[in-house]
Amino acid sequence: MSLAGKVAIVTGSGRGLGLAYAEELARQGASVIVNDVDAATAAEAVATIERAGGVASAVVAPVGPTATATALVDAAFERYGRLDILVTNAGVLRDTVLWKMSDDDFDTVINVHLRGTFTCVREAATRMRDQGEGGRIICIGSPTGQRGNFGQTNYAAAKAGIVGMVRTWALELKRAGITANAVIPVAATAMTATVPYFHAAVEADAQGEPMPAFFRHGLGFGTSADVAPLIAYLASDAAADVSGQAIGVGGDRLQLWSHPEPVLSAYHEGGWDAAALEAEFAETVGAQPQSIGEKFPPLPDELQPPQA
């Protein structure tokens, strides 16, 4: 699965999952453009990759504006002569319930996650098409975008939108040999570190100890290192026929998320008027409501978080 000679951009790669993606791509031989809004963080990420024998350089800029997308792609061509892989990982959180969410809370998350993915992919795909040698677009989604999550209207909208765009891009870019996929990671991050349910897993990871099997196998919840190999695989020639997919990964688990499909159909001669809906909805499509949100099994006693 060598990526030797390939050039990658990973947005939001100064730390956390994004850094793990950049490190793995470099480990497999790709030259990597690292991106972060903080210069010191970006410089340390580059140094980390170089200490491991990889090749990397940084672009310090906020993801969202077209100017940043252009700067990232220009840097790939100016420093390494080409572009083969784009991983859109940059993101922010502004969590709060609907009735407390401000316009700024909503717009900030949508701008970085959704608009930032769009602007970066548009610029990268345009240059990949001109280059004429195919390419790989890998966009980072979330279980929240697939299932919804309390307090994350903005984040759910952005992540669901990213998967929708990926499906569209897989169609539009096929002729150019460019694949587009979404990865749905489930891993210890700054966000999950604040959730009491995951305390035992996050604590184990922080101490360099193996996560309990309850999390790794039962929930498919793991570390950044568990997610990164899928990024490298999708970036490789081995995944040339994989496109338009939403693939979950975490701990010991790999998942293929289904595309939305009708699960039940009902027909009424002449169409559905109000009376017909009132009479028949509950026993037709209303008889099979779809679940919402993530459902987690009870924690075993030994994995309960400490009481405050």
Can you put this structure into words, describing what you see?
Helix 1 links the parallel strand 1 and strand 2. With 308 residues, this protein is α/β, with parallel strands linked by helices. The chain is 41% helix and 14% strand. Strands 3-2-1-4-5-6-7-8 form an eight-stranded mixed β-sheet, sandwiched between helices. Helix 1 crosses helix 9, helix 3 packs parallel to helix 4 and helix 4 packs parallel to helix 6. It has a single domain, classed as Rossmann fold. The protein is globular. It contains ten helices and eight strands. The model has no long low-confidence stretch (mean pLDDT 96).
User: Which fold does the CATH topology refer to?
Assistant: Rossmann fold
Large-scale geometry: globular
Structurally, the number of domains stands at 1
Gyration radius, rounded: 21 Å
State the total count of DSSP E strands.
8
CATH architectural category: 3-Layer(aba) Sandwich
Report the major sheet: 8 strands, mixed
Mean pLDDT: 96
Into which percentage range does the β-strand content fall? 5-15%
- Which superfamily, in CATH terms, is the homologous superfamily? NAD(P)-binding Rossmann-like Domain
